[in-house]
Amino acid sequence: MIEQKISHTENGQTEMVINMGPQHPSTHGVLRLELVLDGEVITDVRPNIGYLHRSFEKYAESLGDYAKVIPYTDRMDYVSAMNQEHGYVLAIEQLLEIEVPERVEYMRVIVAELQRVASHLLAIGTFGLDLGAFTPFLYCFTEREKILNIFEKATGARLLYNYMTVGGLMRDITGDFKTETSSFINSFRPKIKELNDLLSYNSIFIKRTANIGVLPADVALNYAASGPVLRGSGVQWDLRKNDPYSIYDRFDFEVPVGKGEVGTVGDCWDRYIVRVREMEQSLKIIEQALESMPGEGDVKEAVPKRIRPKEGEVYVRTETPRGELGYYIISDKSAAPFRVKARAPSFVHLSLLPAISKGSLIADMVAIVGSIDIVLGEVDR
Amino acid sequence: MKQQEEIFEYLQKEFGEETVEFYKGDVGQPWLKLPAEYLKKMANFLRDNAELRFNTLMCLSGTHYPDKSELGVTYHLHSTLHGHTVAFKVATPADQPEIPSVESIWKTANWHEREAMDMFGILFKDHPNMKRILCPDDWQGYPLRKDYKPQEYYQSMPTGT
Fold first, then answer.
1. Is A166:A92 a contact under the CB 8 Å cutoff?
2. Which residues lie below 8 Å from residue A157, measured CB to CB, with a gap of 6+?
3. How far from chain centre, in Å, is Cα B92?
4. Which residue of B1, B57, B61 to mutate against A (max A Cβ within 10 Å)?
5. A17: exposed, middle or buried (C-beta count within 10 Å: 0-12, 13-18, 19+)?
6. B104 to chain A nearest CA, in Å?
7. Cα–Cα distances in Å, from B22 out to B19, B57, B86?
8. Tens digits of per-residue pLDDT, A154-201?
9. Could you give the ipTM of this predicted complex?
10. Cis peptide bond N-terminal to A337, omega within 30
11. pTM for this one?
């Protein structure tokens, strides 16, 4: 697993190159980082990706049908499949210029926000695990399991749902979806406080994450960072607020940002705490959506019989748990998209890794990779 | 906040009427077309002009147009300061594809350009590390070109095509 190369630099110092990965528990998938070291200090990082490349874009262009692409979008970021589908169907609906029924919009928001909570729980849990905190991981997974159970009842799948279709949803929710979701929210709220006591304000955890991997706001913008990574650097930026899509402009919620409470603005702890606070906001959105959702309605009412958009192109971006997911789709009037490009947030965030990890220690590298929360399925597509 | 049309007129005023073209499909969003030799100058202008301030490059995508035997790159820019968005395209001949790199203007372009090179074979001039990113270094051909034929063997292993 570890291959060492030692070379002498010009001034006679030794420089060592170590491979971290491709099989390494804290790389969150198959990622290889070439670390150039001076002792234990990292002087350079070269991320090597592509181990999970499945040519999503080539498939999307050659399947011959817009609708057949949806299951493939699930497999990009497999821990937030609902959000991946949401962006894609929104893009196709824009190309077709169709209106979606109110009830469908509300249900999409509810499942997307539930998915955001589930995805953040996984991110937070494994982040703690990377730094040696095993218990919070189990607590997070217990809660995530409840969301997956709700999804299983609604969609029939636990991870890759294929739930949203162009113009609607695969099927309507069952009768007890609403009560189960509300009871999950009520039971989950106090658990966030528990998580804060257990992990967020744990002094060992703070020592491992505060002032580590600091990402200044201007660097973050130049690298087009988004989502919790950008907000951790203190930039108030959330597509649900700044460029609202679907019906997000109807809900009242806040956008938490990093303030450097325990260290510097934009350090690992700030990126972490933004995720914790976002979960509370997601719960707020779900509550509002459950309350104002129309009771009746056919979820397949607006589903088109065949999908053949006119000539044109769209770039549609949505806020996934990891940041801005953009779909750039060109239609040439045929039944299949001429070009599909998925702009994955994890891909962009991994590219800024060298900018924030120079000068830190090898052990900190684990914290930095965990804090930018990458999913390699999405990086490699 | 400016609409695409206003940004188009703004660019025409600055660089001359022939340099920028405005397009719109039957559906969806409009885009501008720039000549490759103006790309860097215009990109700098788009980023630094006080009324435009496009500080983020949201997306950079390659495209292959087999009927024109051209390769193209689409840039999607956004300004978090003014809230406006612009899309523009640059084309290059498919047999000798070369486009200036905008890596020095928006750092995020580094990996996006490597991906476009990997998938389409577009060479970005002055890119600091123009290597394949998703495919192996010794892979043959450019997968997302419309006329791509996968190789039968990779390092004497059958690829299943």
1. yes
2. A151, A163
3. 10
4. B61
5. middle
6. 10
7. 10, 20, 11
8. 888 888 998 999 888 888 888 788 899 999 999 999 999 988 888 889
9. 0.90
10. no
11. 0.89
